[in-house]
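Title: Prediction job returns without error message
Component: structure pipeline
Severity: low
Priority: P3
Assignee: unassigned

Description:
Job completed but the reporter wants confirmation the result is attached to the right record. Sequence as submitted:
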Amino acid sequence: MRNIIFIGQSGDEAVYYNTRTKEALVADKSTLLNTEGARKTNKAIIPLMLVFIFLGLIGEIVAIPAFSGFRYSSWMVPPYIAVQLFVCFGFIWMMEEALYKEVKQVQGASSQQFAKAVDSNLFWENFSKKKATFGKMIVFLIIQLVIIFLAFIGIATIPNIVNSFIRQEKFDAQILFSLLIGLFPALLYLFLFQNNPIRWLLAVRKYEQGKVRFAEVSKGKQHS
């Protein structure tokens, strides 16, 4: 586990918390970090899911007859594995760049910056009471367990899909959706090591208890 964890965005800066020293830290944010853009995207998730489900059904109706005579081949195995690796590690790299690109250049953060970063974090979106409680930690623990389950289920299906290529089975439209299997391990990594909601809530709890160390004037640069 990393000592310095991402808290949120404060203007053009990314705010962090050092779990070892209990210090609030700040650095220039990455161009990939856009809390407001992510918030707008989150609001559009359900409509987008409905659109993708509709397009998926239409795609199956079109694809099944169009590829009814098509069979898989063993040459498809390397590209399929490459796609899964690209989805997984590409997502992890993108989130690492967005959240921690400038983390080695951190300086002391003020209480105002920390407070704004906490309020901007998307973890608060689904809760009316903005307070770090053990109830919220349990909710996020359940979410993490679900993601772990989905990640292992997804990984477990890959050998079966590869075998279907080798056995040259008939085309199945579900193969299109299986291209996103690599996203589940990436989400698991995100929730455990990059933006762990439980560690974030524990940091906010320290803030609510007045145990976070602030610097009203920037101090010398620190390293993670």
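Comment from assignee: result matches the submitted record. Confidence is low (pLDDT under 50) at residues 218-224.
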